[in-house]
Amino acid sequence: MSEAPVIAVDRLSKQFGAGVLAVDDVTFGVGAGEVCGLLGPNGAGKTTTLRAMLGLIRPTSGSTSIFGTRITPGAPVLARVGTMIEQAAFVPYVSGMRNLKMWWEAAGTNWPPPGLDRALDIAGLGAAIDRKVSTYSLGMHQRLGVARALLGNPDVLVLDEPTVGLDPQEMRAVRRLLRDMADEHVTVLLSSHLLAEVEEICTYVVVMDRGRLVAQGTVAELTHTGTRTAYFEVDDIPRAREVLARVPGVVQVADAPPGLTVELDGPSRATVVAALVQAGVGVETVVQRRRLEDAFVGLVGEETTRA
Amino acid sequence: MISTFRVEMSKQLRRIRTYVALGIVVVLPVIMTLAVKYGERGRRADNPEALFQIARNSGLVMPAAALLFMSRFLLVVVVAIFAGDAVAGEASWGNLRYVLVRPIGRARLLWAKLAMAAVFIVIATGLIVITGLLAGGLAFGWHRVDIELPFFTLHESAGQLVWHLVIATAYVAWSMTSVVALAFMVSTLTDAATGAIGAGVGFYVVSQILDAIPQLGAMRYGFPTHYLDDWRALIVQNSAGADLIRGVLVQIPYVIVFSGIAFWWFRKKDILS
């Protein structure tokens, strides 16, 4: 990133009330035309960071800026930002189209906005665009939310879990859209739980955990470890652990009931399966972990519950 | 500001609830008129219900009677709905964050919503009077009032009555501003619109209850409902007392304090809904 970043988060911290430090001294930047993935488990501080970036919450310390303009509530530069934060939400008793119109006109901008046709095309709601939003499914809400984010042809997109509630075809369409936007030099910051999705479309990744930034870099930088990880579903985890401890090239074994996650530096998955079966351990499933998922688990651990 | 206000008005005008609330405001004066015309006659002409008795002499008094009755509770509920729902309702849908990611200052949004609530106070109060005027006129005619009783005399021209109705409408609408300001303030503090609406109505009810306790002495003069019915003298006595001015002034500190807190809080609030 040689140029000044389009999105800059500078030593951002946010504490809610007296106790919870949701974001702790986070700094990163997103360059023009980059698609940056913001990753982290639940409670990592991703949404808080995105909200601070949009002027919805006040940082306890630090700042966020877009195009060099420090973000404050209602900052004029927000006119260049399209966004979807968590689930898309609308005025329920008016139509999708009326919602778009009211949202656009509230800031004093004239209807129709540039990019309306493409936004409606992406939403793909057809005649339902004139139906009350209260009759929409979750997927329709999300698609209308993506359409709203695209109104006015924004230079920056900030999206929090944009594919939640979408079916596979719709998810694919959104991914294609994000790549197209990047081709058009739109800067995208995307928060997602779907690591495969992030690996597929993001050029840069920021990983957060417990409010702190734990890693950032390109996908290649984050996944370059020289080892591979595989998941083995077995019928006897303690016995499998004993066996794997004796297999050369098994670097690390972690319980992930009903199986084990195994980091391999040399042996193939077939070799490991053979060793387990020879020792009488039944192997139900073998899954090659995706590379980014490995890196993510390595950074934030396997825990699913957090204090 | 105008565009934001226009959108806020549009949100209300496209909502069925708005028409239900205003519909009640329209229907009740008609029912009252029918009750006065076909119901039993009351007894005294100087009690609060006297306006209904006087209304038999001229339909121009009917809107005053309706205003008196409805300002004691129903109008309060209606205005509290518009004010209490203004911010919290939008937050409860999750839409508030999307409004605020537009380049719209928070103060600008609040002014637009407050102006919308103020417009609906005027609309709701005005509808009571207009409906009462139409229904009363059709039932009893639009003419002057001349009453000569042993302990009660009233002579008032149609023009005077209409002028007094205009003042009464403005006075009652203004008397609702403290309720609106409180409901609006709570609306910025919570995502539960019903809580904000309830707070507005509760504030009014508590004020009325406390005002009914004579032992509270001069403190009662500071309650926002203390002078609420004093406009009645305009119709019943054909005169406006100094209490009307006090009634106008007593609202001001409440409006300033509650609105001030609303703006102060909302400008620094973290939008999490």
- Residue share in β-strands of chain A: 25-35%
* CATH level 1 class label of the largest domain in chain A: Alpha Beta
Helix content of chain B: over 70%
The main pleated sheet of chain A reads as: 6 strands, mixed
Strand content of chain B: under 5%
Question: Greatest chain-chain interface?
Answer: A-B, 34 and 30 residues
- Sum up the overall morphology of chain B in one term: globular
> Helix/strand/pairing class of chain A, anyone?
alpha/beta
If you had to describe this structure to a student in words, what would you say it looks like?
By secondary structure, chain A is an alpha/beta fold. Chain A folds into 2 domains: 217 residues, P-loop containing nucleotide triphosphate hydrolases (Rossmann fold), CATH 3.40.50; 73 residues, Alpha-Beta Plaits (2-Layer Sandwich). Helix content of chain A is 31%, strand content 28%. Chain A contains 10 helices and 14 strands. The longest helix of chain A has 16 residues. By secondary structure, chain B is mainly α. Chain B has one domain. Chain B has 12 helices and 2 strands; from the N terminus they run H-H-H-H-H-H-H-E-E-H-H-H-H-H. In chain B, strands 1-2 form a two-stranded antiparallel sheet. At the A-B interface, helix 2 of A face helix 1 and helix 6 of B.
Essential attributes:
heterodimer, A: 307 residues, alpha/beta, Rossmann fold, Alpha-Beta Plaits, 2 domains, four-stranded antiparallel sheet, B: 273 residues, mainly alpha, 12 helices, 70% helix
What's a quick, concise take on this entry?
Chain A is of the alpha/beta class and 307 residues long.
Layout of strands and helices, then pairs:
The complex is a heterodimer of chains A (307) and B (273).
Chain A: E1 7-16, E2 20-30, E3 35-39, H1 46-53, E4 61-66, E5 69-70, E6 81-84, H2 96-105, H3 116-123, H4 138-150, E7 156-160, H5 168-183, E8 187-191, H6 195-201, E9 204-209, E10 212-217, H7 219-223, E11 228-234, H8 237-245, E12 250-256, E13 259-264, H9 269-278, E14 283-288, H10 291-300
Parallel strand pairs in A: 3-8, 3-9, 6-7, 7-8
Antiparallel strand pairs in A: 1-2, 1-4, 4-5, 9-10, 11-13, 11-14, 12-13
Helix pairs in contact in A: 3-4
Chain B: H1 2-13, H2 16-38, H3 50-55, H4 62-70, H5 74-93, H6 96-100, H7 106-140, E1 145-149, E2 152-156, H8 158-175, H9 177-189, H10 193-211, H11 232-236, H12 242-268
Helix pairs in contact in B: 1-7, 2-4, 2-5, 2-7, 4-7, 5-7, 5-9, 5-10, 7-8, 7-9, 9-10, 9-12
